[in-house]
Amino acid sequence: MGNNLLKGKKGIIFGALNEQSIAWKAAVRCAEEGAQIVLTNTPVAIRLGTVSALAEQCNAPVIAADATSVADLESLVDQSMEHFGGQFDFVLHSVGMSPNIRKGKPYDDLNYDFFLKTVDISALSFHKLLQTLYKKDAVRAGGSILALTYIAGDRAMPGYGDMADAKAMLQSITRNFGYVFGTEKKVRVNTISQSPTMTTAGQGIAGMQEMFQYTDRVSPLGNADADDCADYITVLFSDYTRKVTMQNLYNDGGYSSILPFCKD
After folding, report:
1. What single-letter DSSP state applies at residue 258?
2. How far is CA 115 from CA 73, 110, 168, 259, in A?
């Protein structure tokens, strides 16, 4: 049962694939809190996933777009503004993938063509999205734009491969474009650094199960799950966080603030 935290607000959710997805959970929570949403993902992901069921649940249109394609992003924003009748209030960028990780390539033996794709999909796509939104003046003043990241963007983490570099770049884009968006449009731009989460993408990372168990054991509050992240996203889309911008915000049960050790 929602509290109308986002009543009257409108926004776009990138990346919902199935019920495990953080983006899926976020879409449901935003709708429960009174928001109107547009769902988007790549044509392949829409075809292979179950986003049509989410669209029906949230009474939302699905607009296919490749987040690495400026032309697709421009079309998505234009169609969304037409659907909403003008500017909207929030955007969630839940997009990331590493061909090197999928192919089992270690960090000291990367395929550089794959690496460029990792960066394009997982980081540069956010800049392309922000630039498109900015140029089209698509987000209303006081709006909120979020991307999802992970602590490996701040610290060395074996097994996370070139995604760690992409996440570091994503966070840099957030700060730099966040300054522009805040100064010129009064729009917030932040990242959420989430606990290891058993999404479809997360399960493809080497050692994910061991990392998940370790962080859950060590974190004072345990791991934050996808539902916890959806709640945090909803708050950051709301007017209660209207002065929070250019931040990398941890939602990880306290893991990021402690020295590594093992509780009994």
Report:
1. S
2. 22, 7, 14, 31
pLDDT at 261: 63
Q: What is the pLDDT of residues 197-256, one digit of tens each?
A: 866 555 555 566 777 788 899 999 999 999 999 999 999 999 999 999 999 999 999 999
pLDDT at 212: 76
CA distances from 40 to 27, 102, 109, 210, 229 (A): 11, 23, 33, 32, 19
Q: Is the pLDDT of residue 126 over 70?
A: yes
Tokens of residue 199, six digits: 């999404």
Any idea what DSSP says for residue 240? Answer: G
Identity of residue 5: L
Token pair for residue 247? Answer: 């931040």
- Which parts of the chain are beta strand (E)? 10-14, 36-41, 62-64, 88-93, 139-149, 188-194, 248-251
Query: CA 194 from chain center: how many Å?
Result: 10
Taking only the tens place, the pLDDT of each residue in 188-205 is 999 999 998 866 555 555
Enumerate domains of the chain plus CATH numbers. 10-249 (3.40.50.720)
Place of tokens 């010129």: 184
Contact 23, 49 (CB under 8 A): no
